[in-house]
Design goal:
about 375 residues; alpha+beta; PX Domain; SH3 type barrels; five-stranded antiparallel β-sheet; 7 helices; superoxide-generating NADPH oxidase activator activity; SH3 domain; phosphoprotein
């Protein structure tokens, strides 16, 4: 069996998505050495992060030593984000970039970094759920290479947030903010790092340092899912706060609440606690890319650990306490075990105060009340 490599990468177009917030992803058709063709979806910020690391790995070919020696193609940094027009205008640039990548020497075009980036991820295989109010909108590249102005809609109105404390820049990809700075959020990553822009600056900022202007609560935080999703820890973490969970690398746990600040609530047997989402991965995924992200930035700090935080809101954020998570989780698991037992339910036996099925249990997980943290 020969070496794995990519024969060709073609940009098919882009999708406008609305979950967890409005954003754009580019669709690539990747043809592998065995002639198999796979469709993958990548955000522009992901592509740019890949490009920067590729230049670091091959400084000579990137022209860092001698600009005349550069063979790695150029890729413009994320510009002021102006919605669908920007997504469409980048298509020509990305097409030329991918063509140039495939024409590079094998040590670059077949390096693990490039191959890993274009491998199919579980999210690439996901279909929109029936519960989504707005389904993704797909815009394919015109066969003649010309733009279709009829497909262009109004620009995105970016969400505005305020910094509650000073955050220093710890890597080239981050952006420093000071207390009171107003930033626009371009992308909300599940890792808890958000790609923001402010005046002439742009970069990643921990979500925990930002608050909405109209409310202390994050409206897009999903509700708990006590059915749980199985994940594997790819990095050990020792709890610092009493409501966190210590886990070793390689442990299997269930995620029951995916919070946007990157600190998810996980369950191990009957115990729950906060754990950094950057240190988790669904089984079957290649951990190489996640490990590089951890090495580059690490997990964002929690809101409770930020010193000298100053909010403009009178009340604090509403959050369930770990006691509430544990109680609700235990009730859910007990109810699920009862439903799994063979034989009819007795007339006097309640089906559980959360509801008759798992959907009801999940839907009412937050309705049981919130505790402030």
């Amino acid at each position: 069996m020969g070496d794995t490599f990519i024969r060709h990468v073609a940009l098919l177009g882009f999708e406008k998505r609305f979950v967890p917030s409005q954003h754009y992803v580019y669709m690539f058709l990747v043809k592998w050495q065995d002639l198999s063709e796979k469709v993958v979806y990548r955000r522009f910020t992901e592509i740019y992060e890949f490009h920067k690391l590729l230049k670091e790995m091959f400084p000579i070919e990137a022209g860092e030593i001698n600009p005349e020696s550069r063979i790695i193609p150029h890729l413009p940094a994320p510009r002021w984000f102006d919605g669908q027009r920007a997504a469409e205008s980048r298509q020509g640039t990305l097409t030329e970039y991918c063509n140039a990548l495939m024409g590079l020497p094998a040590k670059i075009s077949r390096c693990p970094h490039l191959l890993d980036f274009f491998k199919v991820r579980p999210d690439d295989l996901k279909l929109p759920s029936d519960s989504q109010v707005k389904k993704p909108e797909t815009y394919l590249m015109p066969k003649d290479g010309k733009s279709n102005a009829a497909d262009i809609t109004s620009p995105i109105i970016l969400q505005t947030y305020r910094a509650i404390a000073d955050h220093g820049k710890n890597s080239a990809s981050e952006m420093a903010v000071a207390t009171g700075d107003i930033v626009e959020v371009v992308e909300k990553s599940e890792s808890g790092w958000w790609f923001c822009q402010m005046k002439a600056k742009r970069g990643w900022v921990p979500a925990s340092f930002l608050e909405p202007l109209d409310s202390p609560d994050e409206a897009e935080d999903p509700e708990p899912n006590y059915a749980g999703e199985p994940y594997i820890t790819i990095k050990a973490y020792t709890a610092v706060e009493e409501d966190e969970m210590s886990l070793s690398q390689g442990e299997t746990i269930e995620v029951i609440h995916k919070l946007l600040d990157g600190w998810w609530v996980v369950r191990k047997e009957d115990v729950t606690g906060y754990f950094p989402s950057m240190y988790l991965q669904k089984s079957g995924q290649d951990p190489a890319q996640a490990q590089r992200q951890i090495k580059g930035r690490g997990a964002p700090p929690r809101r409770s650990t930020i010193r000298n935080a100053h909010s403009i809101h009178q009340r604090s954020r509403k959050r369930l306490s770990q006691d509430s998570y544990r109680r609700n989780s235990v009730r859910f698991l007990q109810q699920r075990r009862r439903l799994a037992q063979p034989g009819p339910q007795s007339a006097g036996s309640p089906r559980g105060e959360f509801g008759a099925d798992e959907a009801g249990l999940r839907a009412r997980g937050v309705a049981r009340g919130r505790d402030r943290r």
